Hints:
2 domains; seven-stranded antiparallel β-sheet
Amino acid sequence: MTMRPTKVWKVVAFFFASTTALLFAFAWWLPRTYYVSRSVVIAAEPQAVMATISDLRTWSKWTVWLHDLDPSLHLSFDQSPQAAELKFSGRKLGKGRFVIVGKSGLSELSVRAEMPATGSSSLHRFQVEREANGTRLIWSMMGQAGDDFLSSLTVGTRERLAVRDFDQSLAALKACLEAHRCR
C-alpha cells in the first residue's frame, strides 16, 4: 500500500507543526534568568582592586568582552563623581553600555550591563574582601534574557560562556594588577 503524495505532505506538515508547538511550549517553561559567580585572589591591596574595577576606563585592559571579542569595538566614557558609564559599539557585540549603579566603600561595586539589540540586561556585583595573602575579588552576574523565543533557549549557553569569560577576565585582571599596569 502506498500513500498518496497529498497524504504524505499532510503527515509531514502535522509532524512539523507538532514539533514546533512542543518546542515553543518547552521554551515557555525555561528560565529567563541566569546567574554566574567566580572569584580570584589577587596579590594587591583592596584599594587598588576597587580603584581598578570602579574605573570603567580600565575595563578594556582586563575584561575579554572589551578587548578580545570584538576588535572593531568603539568605547566612550562618561565618568563624574556622581555616575560612571561606558558605552560600546562594534560589529560583533553591537551596542551596549555598562553603568555603575552602586558602590559601598572598598567592599562592593554594582554595575548594570545593557544590550538593547538583544533585549538583555544583567547586574554585575563585585565584592572585595581582604585575605591574608591578598584580596579576594568575587564577581557575580545575574541577568535577564530577552523575551524572544531564542533567548529563552540560550540561557544555559549564556551561563557556560559567562563562566569562561569571567575566568579569563579575572586572570587578566589579576595579571594586570600584580604587574601594576592597569592604570
